[in-house]
């Protein structure tokens, strides 16, 4: 068969050349028609974008290509509100729309079936009832781009130095201000009860979220959200570093939100904050050991609650080095409650619990340590025993307003080869001032007491020392040891 076609082409060369030329002309014509149709579709799309009223303001793009299937590709899309302020800027992306809606000029919320934004900067405001609006970017958002200026863009909100009443007053003032500005904010995104059924994708975007007087900045955001406001939304989120009210190295989120609830949508979400820097929470101690929080959040979006876990590989606070920190975490919308937290410390075990207020940054912790080994906690002190310890931490959000106090009691041991039956005392640490009181060392036949004890460079020092006999009668006083 192939040989016959070859022989025929050799016998009729002009016919064969004419056939090839006809195919080329047909293909060029088809491409031209498709290009004209694409330009026409783009023109129709541009016209309808200017006439829509859901996204208030103007939307422009440097380049838009659309085909008859409703697939639209754009470059450098900019959305500005009615005051000319930039709300959204997208270097590139794509849309999927219903072609028949565009052709018949019956554009509605469900016309948009899918949105993909690449390398965009997105700022979202969530009201107390979880209504969404798009807002101007904050100054902190712009810092994300300045990665080479020597500063960490992951800024934090600090309330140090304020009383609890002042912090609550500021929170109330901010809520009133937000309520007054709510109508203006909602001028940017005007849903007005329209149904939305679309798939939203973010690829390597920067994002910030304002919610309940908290501010979160996120870099390298990857998002997939299948949104159907008549039914439910499924969401998957992964970020790089984040900052603002909390600083860390990543956030993951997945789950669904049910829009069929009577008043406020109900959620079922799994969320994890990875490598959180505790110092960004104004915990009053300069701690940078990474902490991971994972939670299962449920309930109405305006009043979420949930439970999960807290985990740290290491935790270093003055005088104590913890490893393998793990415990239960509870969230009620205003505070974090930690329960059954346990950790390894100096060969022993610490169990603790506490609360942390997300608005005021105040927190309270209580813990009990068992069988802590002094040879590991005080190397070089020549003190050998195991110690049980109660510890409490109360903070009002700054190092100056953080107090650590507790009591300790040892089992039999020795100090510089001198055996003793028990060592006990109380301690207080208030902003660089560590003091011990009621320190008692019970030795065979007599007891040593002191109110002044310190640990310097791993060495134990105390003075004066008051010695009493077994009946409690004073023997002597050693002024310095």
Give an account of the 3D structure:
This protein is an alpha+beta fold. It is built from 6 helices and 30 strands. A hairpin with a 5-residue loop joins strand 17 (348-357) and strand 18 (363-373). The longest helix is centred in the N-terminal third of the chain and has 39 residues, at 13-51.
Short description:
By secondary structure, this protein is of the alpha+beta class. 18% of the residues lie in helices and 51% in strands.
Number of helices: 6
Coarse structural class? alpha+beta
Count all strands and give the number: 30
* Backbone shape: elongated
The poorly predicted ranges are 28-34, 153-158, 181-186
Assembly type? single chain
Distance between the termini: 111 Å
What is the average of the pLDDT values? 76
Helix content: 10-25%
Biggest sheet, in brief?
Answer: 25 strands, mixed
Strand content range:
over 45%
* Rg over alpha carbons: 34 Å
Keywords: Membrane, Transmembrane, Transmembrane helix
List the SSEs and their pairings.
Layout lengths: L1 H10 L1 H39 L6 E9 L4 E10 L5 E12 L1 H5 L8 E7 L2 E6 L5 E3 L4 H5 L20 H22 L11 E15 L2 E15 L3 E7 L3 E3 L5 E9 L7 E11 L14 E10 L4 E13 L2 E12 L3 E11 L2 E10 L5 E11 H4 L5 E2 L1 E10 L6 E9 L2 E3 L2 E3 L1 E9 L2 E11 L2 E5 L2 E4 L2 E4 L2 E5 L4 E5 L3
Parallel strand pairs: 4-7, 5-7
Antiparallel strand pairs: 1-2, 2-3, 3-4, 5-6, 7-8, 8-9, 8-10, 9-11, 11-12, 12-13, 13-14, 14-15, 15-16, 16-17, 17-18, 18-20, 19-22, 20-21, 21-24, 22-23, 24-25, 25-26, 26-29, 27-28, 29-30
